[in-house]
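Ops channel
N.P.: pipeline sanity check, posting one input/output pair.
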């Protein structure tokens, strides 16, 4: 979905989208990163901290009621206020009975032109997690996390049967067409690779629309355990997409491609170093 400066309007649109998805048979619904507002990280402005809220809090409670009413699991990305001066880019996970299961705090925080997230967010400190819901055990990572195989692997090892990436990613206005296509392709490929390497489906949920210097490229997609794209949304229009995913395929995939079995955990100590200089 696209967003406006009015959080109430964005909430109304998100709730309407969830209702539409539930009507079309969705069991798990994931919203995009920071869906309640424009992507304020394009600039460094102190007033944006006024958008933050505790988790659980008012927004979480609204979606708890909605989840219980519709019988769906909802992933709710929010700008979390943890304490005075301490903020996170987070996502609340709500089960189909309305129970708040917990939250994930974005671990990898970018600091690039038009993505000045380090100004706003402290890095996550509660690790990589998964939650058992009525419709499966789900893992959640957020946007910049999607470029890191370590994050996907650890979330899969925590028990996730499906991995969701709420996202806000786009192109700068002055980027050339080829550069845009290269970036979009890389974004798809890296996440499809996570599905293959871990033998679990991956769902990426991006926003659309132009906000300041960025045009968000949409393209939300679902990939199965072989990295096959089951559905990809348009790049420039809003869409509520309901896609059927077979969680039982993971056992078949992992049996034939036993990557988790053959991991050399005794040889991976170097991953905790920034670089291996020698």
């Amino acid at each position: 979905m696209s967003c406006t400066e009015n959080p109430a309007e964005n909430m109304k649109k998100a709730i309407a989208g969830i209702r539409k998805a539930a009507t079309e048979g969705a069991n798990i619904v994931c919203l995009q990163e920071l869906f309640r507002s424009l992507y304020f990280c394009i600039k460094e402005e102190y007033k944006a901290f006024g958008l933050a809220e505790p988790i659980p809090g008012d927004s979480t409670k609204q979606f708890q009621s909605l989840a219980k009413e519709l019988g769906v699991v909802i992933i709710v990305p929010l700008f979390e206020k943890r304490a005075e001066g301490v903020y996170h880019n987070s996502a609340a996970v709500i089960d189909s009975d309305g129970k708040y299961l917990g939250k994930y705090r974005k671990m990898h925080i970018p600091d690039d032109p038009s993505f000045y997230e380090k100004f706003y967010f402290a890095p996550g400190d509660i690790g990589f997690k998964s939650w058992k819901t009525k419709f499966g055990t789900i893992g959640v990572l957020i946007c910049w996390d999607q470029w890191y195989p370590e994050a996907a692997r650890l979330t899969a090892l925590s028990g996730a049967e499906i991995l969701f990436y709420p996202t806000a990613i786009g192109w700068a206005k002055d980027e050339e067409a080829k550069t845009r296509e290269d970036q979009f392709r890389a974004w798809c490929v890296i996440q499809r690779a996570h599905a293959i390497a871990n033998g679990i489906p991956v769902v990426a949920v991006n926003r659309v629309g132009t906000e300041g210097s960025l045009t968000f490229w949409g393209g939300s997609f679902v990939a199965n355990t072989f990295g096959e794209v089951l559905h990809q949304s348009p790049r420039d229009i809003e869409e509520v997409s309901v896609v059927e995913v077979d969680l039982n395929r993971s056992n078949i995939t992992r049996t034939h491609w036993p990557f988790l079995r053959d991991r050399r955990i005794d040889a991976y100590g170097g991953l905790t170093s920034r670089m291996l200089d020698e």
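N.P.: looks fine end to end. The chain has one domain: 7-260.
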